[in-house]
């Protein structure tokens, strides 16, 4: 990437209205599996947790409900206006590429859909592992984009359009910005390489229908990435039809795979 401004570092900007909608949709789609996975990770009252890429703050609030009034949750994001002030949560507007905003150690560190967007993900992973208390856990939630198989579409042209937009977005636009949809399935080995053991992972997916939160998220991503997609040869009319398709109840497909992985630091 030649543009080193903060806005150019990330594919999506949560400071915008579309970014705020994206955060709300992600919480609606991902909080249930995230909470279920996190609830299996030890975090005692009075503990200290770090939530990176905190978004709308739902995970930070969940963690704060477990650490209680004697604990602390440090919530970090580039845009903190979506993070309401909550007892037990300390907010930091910060870019994790510049390191952690406060020193460890932490009993639990969580990051959802963050490392997949950062080309420096392996270096940051080592930083996070070092910031754990002995016996502490690192929990990552990442998205994989194995082909989102179409189940039904209004027409064959619509099916082909969906597949073309997805292919260009995942194989051309996303890698050009330093992000990786392969990382979700590489994270398990990366946690082991960082010295965390044992490591455990789960994967979730679902079918989605036009107008549902998952399809509205697809539509949201394309609206945010429109200039990049146009630059790769898609037309305005194709993107407009894609947006309509994501609201059409006659469209059904498999959604992304959401991969959760946790690793424990020895001690």
Instruction: State the total count of DSSP E strands.
Output: 10
Gap between N and C termini: 40 Å
What fraction strand?
Answer: 15-25%
State the helical fraction.
25-40%
Q: Which assembly state applies to the chains in this document?
A: single chain
Q: What is the overall silhouette?
A: elongated
Protein structure class = alpha/beta
Helix/strand order:
HHEHEEEHEEHHEEHHHEE
Computed Rg: 19 Å
Largest pleated sheet: 7 strands, mixed
Biggest sheet: strands side by side, in what order? 3-2-1-4-5-10-7
Summed up, the helix count is: 9
Let me know the average pLDDT: 92
Low-confidence stretches are 1-8
Could you characterize what this model shows?
The chain is α/β, with parallel strands linked by helices and 267 residues long. Helices cover 40% and strands 24% of the residues. The chain is built from 9 helices and 10 strands. The protein has helices spanning 6-9, 17-38, 58-67, 121-130, 156-176, 183-193, 213-224, 226-231, 236-245, and strands at residues 48-52, 72-77, 89-93, 106-112, 132-144, 150-152, 196-204, 207-209, 252-254, 257-265. The strands form 2 sheets. The protein has a 7-stranded mixed beta sheet with strand order 3-2-1-4-5-10-7, sandwiched between helices. Strands 6-9-8 form a 3-stranded antiparallel beta sheet, with helices on one face. Helix 4 links the parallel strand 4 and strand 5. Helix 2 (17-38) crosses helix 7 (213-224) and helix 5 (156-176) packs across helix 9. The longest helix is centred in the N-terminal third of the chain and has 22 residues, at 17-38. The chain is elongated and about 55 Å long. The termini are far apart. The relative contact order is 0.16.
């Amino acid at each position: 990437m030649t543009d080193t401004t903060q806005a150019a570092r990330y594919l999506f900007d949560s400071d915008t209205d579309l970014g705020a909608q994206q955060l709300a949709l992600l919480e609606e789609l991902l909080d249930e599996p995230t909470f279920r996975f996190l609830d299996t990770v030890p975090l005692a009252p009075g503990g200290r947790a770090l939530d990176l890429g905190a978004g709308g703050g739902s995970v930070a609030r969940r963690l704060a409900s477990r650490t209680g009034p004697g604990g602390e949750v440090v919530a970090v994001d580039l845009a903190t206006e979506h993070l309401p002030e909550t007892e037990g949560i300390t907010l930091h507007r910060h870019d994790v590429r510049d390191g952690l905003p406060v020193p460890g150690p932490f009993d639990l560190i969580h990051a959802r859909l963050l490392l997949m967007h950062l080309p420096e993900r392996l270096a940051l992973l080592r930083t996070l592992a070092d910031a754990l208390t002995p016996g502490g856990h690192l929990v990552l939630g990442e998205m994989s984009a194995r082909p989102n198989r179409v189940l039904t579409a209004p027409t064959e042209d619509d099916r082909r359009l969906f597949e073309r937009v997805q292919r260009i977005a995942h194989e051309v636009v996303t890698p050009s910005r330093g992000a990786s949809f392969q990382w979700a399935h590489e994270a398990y080995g990366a946690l082991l390489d960082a010295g965390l053991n044992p490591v455990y992972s789960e994967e979730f997916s679902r079918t989605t229908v036009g107008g549902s939160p998952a399809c509205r998220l697809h539509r949201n991503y394309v609206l945010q990435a429109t200039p990049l997609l146009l630059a790769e040869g898609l037309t305005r009319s194709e993107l407009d039809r894609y947006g309509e398709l994501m609201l059409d109840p006659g469209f059904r497909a498999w959604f992304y795979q959401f991969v959760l992985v946790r690793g424990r630091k020895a001690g």
